[in-house]
Amino acid sequence: MNLNLSSLALRLRYARHKKGLSMEELAHKAGTTRSVIQRAELGGTAIPRPIKSIATALDVSPSWLAFGEGAFDYVSKDAVEIAIAWDKLPTEVKAALSAAILKK
Question: Which of 5, 37, 77, 104 is the least buried, fewest Cβ under 10 Å from its Cβ?
Fold first, then answer.
């Protein structure tokens, strides 16, 4: 799987979806407005002023969110790709893999 997170807009949308937040919920947690989040996700703004509070609300590094530097959520890109693939697995497969990996 090859993630294209080459822009702030793509990274913001990706991180917001991973947290399961709507634009409104993220805006509230970050102390900003939905329009700021929406403009950033549409690529209509370079770097929004409240980037640090947005990153904090998403539990990601501000430098990752703004510039793509470092890793998402302070984990490796491989770990992020594995987590995405894991989310797509059927429940039964997840249970079997968890049992095998964690020796449950």
Answer: 104
pTM > 0.70: no
How far apart CA 3 and CA 86 sit, in angstroms, is: 15
For helices 34-41 and 8-19, the axis angle rounded to 10 degrees is 120
Structure tokens, 69? 């530097």
Instruction: For residue 50, give both structure tokens.
Output: 């409240």
Predicted confidence at residue 72, as pLDDT, reads 65
Q: Please write the tens of the pLDDT for every residue from 36-56.
A: 999 999 987 778 889 999 999
